[in-house]
Amino acid sequence: MRTRVFAGRLAGTGVFDPIGDRVGKVHDVVVLFRLVGPPLAVGLVIEVSGKKRVFLPLTRVTSIANGQVITTGLVNIRRFSQRSTETLVISEILDRRVSFKDGSGSAVVIDLAIEEYRRADWRVSHAYVRTDRDGPHGGESLIVPVGDVIGLATGKEGQAATALLARIAHLKPADVAEVFRELPGDRRLAVATALNDERLADVLSELGDEERVAILSDLDLDRAADVLDVMQPDDAADLVAELPSSHAALLLERMDPEEAEDVRRLLAYDERTAGGLMTTEPIILGPDATVAHALASARRTSVTPALAATIFVTRPPLESPTGRYLGVVHLQRALREPPSTLLGQIIDTDIDPLSPEDGMGSVAKRLATYNLTALPVVDDSRLLLGAVSIDDVLDHLLPDDWRTTEDDETDMRVERNG
Q: Any bridge partners for residue 269, and if so which?
């Protein structure tokens, strides 16, 4: 009896070597479409340590059963790079619209089954589909031989992003960004379009300049402006700065006026200065605010961990550029005080603020010297303009391609052809 496995259900399955040590988990299934005969299943994309995805030929798989994949123990840890002849089942085929060869209607692919015909000879055998409600099968879910449907290899029109959205729903933005990097352009745009503004903004902040510019440029102008509105102002400014000037101007006109003004102010500074690095939306409170108020502000999900550790205290107004900067309250200190304590009673006035013209080196040195995660930036009148956080400094100190730089490749390898 042949082993039949549904590709969608393989996602997240643990991959183990012969002695039971975990190698990684399944991310996707790689298939090759042929002119004649069913598609061949040639390998798995597996996620190993450090969220790195590598190729595991099915010739190196000895068993797929009981919720686990067993390998021969040899894994090529070179990062997976999809070839033009290869198709990823989960990323590219699920949710694809196909037609029945007998002309009885169309359906959407829910999953694909692969079967081992002979040792290490895996083929796509069946499609699990959901038919259209107005067709002869009336919205049924069916398992049909793969030869009974047309459009698996080419039917990208109308392809939804339902399966991919379900897979990434609980991933962190940095991990969703990794998924985005591996998607073809049309699928990446489909997923980006389906994400809500806040989620897409977080993902774009984790992508490289070229990738996020491509995505934002493909979005409808109003949708792109909405996404920029909910991004941290410094991230939005970095992204707008990479766009063609004409496109950037159109987006700034469509943005919320207050958000656009913040972005314009940041664009006025060199990107490698405190002014170019800062966000205009740190936690800012007055000296008469209580510790309870400060802790509630730090709990907001829109505040990054690096910024949540510091409350900046100023005179009114409390939106940048604020009234006169007074000092900071460290979250650790606030946690030691009664909730009713006023921030003015526990303020730290020993943290010297940055000037917006201070260079990257000065900013990094100041953060390291005082073991801080954020520093205030003030103008000549000591009005608070914003704050520089350590994560933004690291982003600029690391090489431009740090998100996609290969890890050490010293593990055992097998060739792509098995």
A: none
* Residue 123, H or E segment: strand 121-131
* 219, pLDDT greater than 80: yes
Tokens of 237: 């400014």
**Which SS3 state, helix, strand or coil, does residue 233 take?**
helix
Render pLDDT for 252-292 as a digit per residue (tens, 0 to 9): 999 999 999 999 999 999 989 999 999 999 999 999 999 99
Residue 376 near residue 384 (C-beta atoms within 8 A): yes
pLDDT per position as a tens digit, 282-320:
999 999 999 999 999 999 988 999 999 999 999 999 999
Helical axes 257-267 vs 221-230, angle rounded to 10°: 70
DSSP codes joined into one string, 24-42: EEEEEEEEE--SSSSPEEE
Task: For residue 282, count other CB atoms closer than 10 A to its CB.
Answer: 26
Q: For residue 403, what pLDDT is reported?
A: 60
Burial 266-281 (b: 16+ CB within 10 A, else e): bbebeeebbbbbbbbb
C-alpha to C-alpha distances, 202 to 205, 235, 251, nearest whole angstrom: 5, 10, 18
86, with CB counted inside 10 A (0-12, 13-18, 19+), is middle
Full set of structural domains in the chain with CATH: 1-159 (no CATH), 162-268 (1.25.60.10), 284-397 (3.10.580.10)
Highest-confidence segment of 159-168, 313-322, 388-397: 313-322
Q: What is the β-pairing status of strands 53-57 and 40-47?
A: antiparallel
CB atoms within 10 A of CB 379: 14
* Residue located via tokens 């801080």: 372
Residue 414 has pLDDT above 50, yes or no: no
DSSP 8-class letter at 72: -
C-beta pairs of 195-204 under 8 Å, 24+ apart in sequence: 195/165, 197/223, 197/226, 197/227, 197/229, 197/230, 198/230, 199/173, 200/227, 201/227, 201/228, 201/230, 201/231, 201/235, 202/173, 202/176, 203/173, 203/176, 203/177, 204/231, 204/235, 204/239
In the block, tokens 């049924």 appear at 140
What is the predicted pLDDT for the residue at 136?
A: 63
C-alpha 295/C-alpha 350 separation (Å) is 22
Is 59 within 8 Å of 69 (Cβ atoms)?
Answer: no
**C-beta of residue 253 within 8 angstroms of C-beta of residue 263:** no
